[in-house]
Write a structure and sequence with these properties.
CATH class: Mainly Alpha
InterPro entries: ABC_BtuC-like, ABC_transptr_permease_BtuC
Strand order of the largest sheet: 1-2-3
Pfam families: FecCD (PF01032)
Helix content: over 70%
Distance between the termini: 48 Å
Subcellular location: Cell membrane
Family: Belongs to the binding-protein-dependent transport system permease family. FecCD subfamily.
Radius of gyration: 21 Å
Strand content: under 5%
Largest sheet: 3 strands, antiparallel
Keywords: Cell membrane, Membrane, Transmembrane, Transmembrane helix, Transport
CATH superfamily: ABC transporter involved in vitamin B12 uptake, BtuC
Oligomer: single chain
CATH architecture: Orthogonal Bundle
Structural class: mainly alpha
Number of helices: 15
CATH topology: ABC transporter involved in vitamin B12 uptake, BtuC
Length: about 350
């Protein structure tokens, strides 16, 4: 049996006897290129900072052969920060692609729908009421995100189905309520904890430790394969519930599983870095434009979001006059402009 690739549009079908495998070379090339760029930016994160370190010093510190202050800076400060930026970006990118696919709407992002705010509510409640800590805040964020997702899903149900504009609109309303609740908790909480919660709420990669990085890395490594297994079904859901059901897809079961995975990823990213605006909104669309094919590529979206978050952090560190702009505020400024452009482009279309 000889494999013979037959080109169909931008796809390639590899036929092996009675079987066939659909390949999308452009998507894999784009995803691999973006992943390589993200790794280069992560290396740049290790070199960036007020203490000037050379490439050789960083390499020796990673190998445990440098010793002294340089090794502590690299292993205890810069490496956790780079890992949080890399994996939080990837989590947000995949989460955004999942929700845009489920809602069949470019605005179907966890920060627009309100799931990120739900995760933030859980984390802020933990910080204000019980104090700050990497693992407890992560668990509280995941719990808050899942509860918010369940509420939004139940409120958006109509005739036993959810999704589309109902999911987006209900999520926006629930998110507005949660945003007000977050502000109220900060006002009424202990002053020190409220200040810590306010700093966390701005979204920042400063002072990230292994307590922030390890739960995030473990969660992404476990959740990402589950989302990839749902990838084909999500593509069919984008064509409409009726067609997906005719093709044998359990629509609501698939949607629930995808929402659970998307919320988990968004909550893990929020717990580690605070609320990061618009990365989950922009990354899947930018990746889709690079890949073509009219579909949301999950791996390319993950790599694109990691690049965006790393670029934003490197840009924040390079600001003049030692300005300390939280990364969540920087992505909010840039992402807000992107959202205005996206809505304007949709109106012209």
């Amino acid at each position: 049996m000889n494999g013979r690739p037959a080109r169909i549009g931008s796809w390639r079908t590899l036929r092996l006897g009675d079987h066939s495998l659909r390949l999308y070379p452009r998507g894999w090339v784009v995803a691999a290129s973006l992943a390589a760029l993200a790794l280069l930016l992560a290396v740049a994160e290790l070199l960036a900072g007020r203490s000037a370190l050379g490439v050789q010093q960083v390499a020796l510190a990673l190998l445990g052969q440098e010793g002294g202050v340089a090794e502590r800076i690299v292993l205890d400060i810069r490496l956790p920060r780079a890992l949080v930026a890399l994996f939080a970006g990837a989590a947000l990118g995949v989460s955004g692609a999942v929700f845009q696919s489920v809602s069949r709407n470019v605005l179907g992002s966890p920060d627009i729908i309100g799931f990120t705010l739900g995760a933030a509510t859980g984390a802020i409640a933990q910080i204000v009421l019980f104090g700050h800590g990497g693992v407890p805040v992560s668990l509280a964020a995941v719990g808050g995100g899942l509860l918010t997702a369940a509420l939004v899903y139940l409120l958006s149900l109509k005739d036993g189905a959810s999704g589309g504009y109902r999911l987006v609109l209900v999520g926006v309303g629930v998110g507005a309520i949660l945003d007000a609740l977050n502000g109220l908790m900060q006002v009424k909480g202990n002053l020190d904890n409220a200040v810590m919660a306010n700093l966390w709420r701005a979204g920042s990669l400063d002072a990230r430790t292994w307590g922030h990085a390890l739960p995030l890395v473990a969660g992404v490594v476990l959740a990402l394969p589950c989302v990839l297994l749902l990838g084909r079904r999500l593509q069919l859901l984008e064509m409409g519930d009726d067609l997906a059901m005719q093709l044998g897809i359990g629509v609501e079961r698939t949607r629930l599983a995808a929402v659970a995975c998307g919320v988990l990823l968004a909550a893990l990213a929020t717990a580690a870095a605070g609320p990061i605006a618009f990365v989950a909104l922009a990354a899947p669309q930018l990746a889709a434009r690079l890949c073509g094919g009219g579909r949301l590529p999950l791996l390319a979206a993950a790599a694109m979001a990691a690049c965006l978050l790393l670029l934003a952090d490197l840009g924040a560190q390079a600001l003049p006059w030692r300005l300390n702009l939280p990364i969540g505020r920087m992505t909010g400024i840039v992402g807000g402009a992107y959202l205005i452009w996206l809505l304007g482009r949709g109106r012209r279309g």
